[in-house]
Design a protein that fits this description.
- The longest helix is centred in the middle third of the chain and has 11 residues.
- The strands form three sheets. The protein has a seven-stranded mixed barrel.
- It is globular, with a radius of gyration of 16 Å.
- The chain has four helices and twelve strands; from the N terminus they run E-E-E-E-E-E-H-H-E-E-E-H-H-E-E-E.
- It has a single domain, classed as PK beta-barrel domain-like (M1 Pyruvate Kinase, Domain 3, Beta Barrel), CATH 2.40.33.
Length: 193
């Protein structure tokens, strides 16, 4: 019996992008039509690489700057959750470029809470492993504030529990606008103490 089971839940890719550099405190992303993924993620993306220096998210496990496996190669957000964040902020819409997103999808409910270790698999077999929920960060908040003024200050509170997930490449391949990603989940009961 497989440890991961395919579900009927699919998400359609509505946007692809990358952050090519981090020379300023604000995020400067660019939209893409296709995304070629290798084992280190997407070439030319600041989050790419098989390893990364540890950050504030894992200081309980590793001193800041320790070289660790990179499970944050790809940032995926849902269009539905972006709409909810924008509504909570009182703005019309949020540009994925401002968030440093890699992929925007539509179609999987409660996307930011997809179980860790789930897989999202594309038509050519490209497979992304869900690491964990992505927490609201000061960098997108700064970028959004620069674009929207005072409303940008409401981003972190509005994005709590809705910021999407981070993932890493289990199987290389290519993602394209309009592709569907099928969700595969671990075949286990939820953890209880």
């Amino acid at each position: 019996m497989p440890a991961l089971k395919p579900t009927d839940h699919v998400a359609r890719i509505t946007w692809l992008g990358r952050v090519p550099h981090r020379q300023r405190p604000e995020i400067e992303g660019e939209a893409l039509g296709t995304m070629v993924l290798g084992f280190g993620g997407q070439d030319g993306e600041v989050h790419a690489g098989r390893t990364r220096p540890s950050c504030s998210r894992v200081t309980a496990q590793h001193p800041r700057g320790t070289e660790i496996a990179n499970t944050r190669q790809v940032s995926i957000v849902s269009a539905e959750e972006l709409d909810r964040i924008a509504a909570a902020m009182g703005v019309g819409a949020l540009d994925p470029l401002w968030l440093g997103a890699s992929v925007v999808v539509r179609g999987i409910a409660d996307f930011s809470h997809v179980p860790p270790s789930s897989r999202l698999q594309g038509p050519d077999g490209a497979t992304l492993v869900v690491d964990m929920q992505n927490r609201p960060c000061h960098l997108p908040a700064r970028t959004i504030q620069g674009a929207l003024g005072e409303a940008g200050k409401r981003f972190q509170a509005a994005a709590k529990g809705r910021r999407g997930i981070t993932a890493w490449v289990e199987r290389p391949g290519t993602l394209r606008m309009g592709d569907t990603l099928r969700l595969h989940v671990p075949d286990q009961r939820p953890w209880s103490v």
